[in-house]
Amino acid sequence: MLHLKEKRRTTQKLDEILAALLDTRDHLAVLEQQVMGNEEDEEADNNNQQPPEDNPDMGVDVNAEMHLSNQKTKRPGLAAELTNDIKRISPPKYDGTTLGDGAENWLSKMEKYFAIRNFSEETKAIWGAYQLSHEASSWWDSRKAELNIDETNITWDQFKGYFRQRWLPQLFYDQKMTEFQNLAQGKLTVTEYWERFTKLLKYVPQYQTDEKFRIRKFIMGLNPVIGGEVDVHSPTTMEGVVEKAIRQEQKLKAISAHKEEVRKKTANPSSTSLAPKKRTVEK
């Protein structure tokens, strides 16, 4: 009896996925028709449209603007090309062997996958469960049985909640918070430090919208010879902070390279300068 019930549930899951695929196919077909129709309409308009007379009140050369508009590059079959690209994209699998960052990356990739498809929240949950494999799939089967979860009747957010409880425990976020608080540039370049800063920032959502805090935290983590110079200019945006930090880093590198060049010349003077001078004999 239990086997039959599980078989029916699996069949229902496959039916849901098939329906989602059909919906996606229809959605892409409509999108392709709309884009191709717009291209045809635009081409017809360009062929039939007469150049308007210049309007002195507008203060612009309308004929010139029409000419520039008509010279824009067109790409025939763009809609079909995009549709085929989307069809070739496969959702990622998650096997449960990588905790923390691996699990977070899988969720992020699934979100990007869903962003180009017209899935309902329930269908997203079905897809998410279907993409689990090995240890992760076994965990989900056990979790469903334990909590009597009907995965055809939960949303993607609910599924992510269950997923995070197992593969992204609070300890992981606490560690990332500590790592963010202790982050400093050290031997990293400014660009590398910025990339690390941004990556860890997503684990401390309370600071993501507080730009003043992010600016102070970033400057304090810079090496003093860079951070001190950046702080003098009191930048008000993160973009401004990063730009000034990179410029100061480049300036310091140029100074260091110049000093090294001078040092080498001083340590290794040319052979001509070391050659003994010939003594002239007075006659």
Automatic annotation (TrEMBL):
Domain Retrotransposon gag: 130-224
UniProt-listed InterPro entries: Retrotrans_gag_dom
Superkingdom of the organism of origin: Eukaryota
Disordered: annotated span: 38-61, 257-283
Record-given protein name: Retrotransposon gag domain-containing protein
Taxonomic source organism: Taxus chinensis
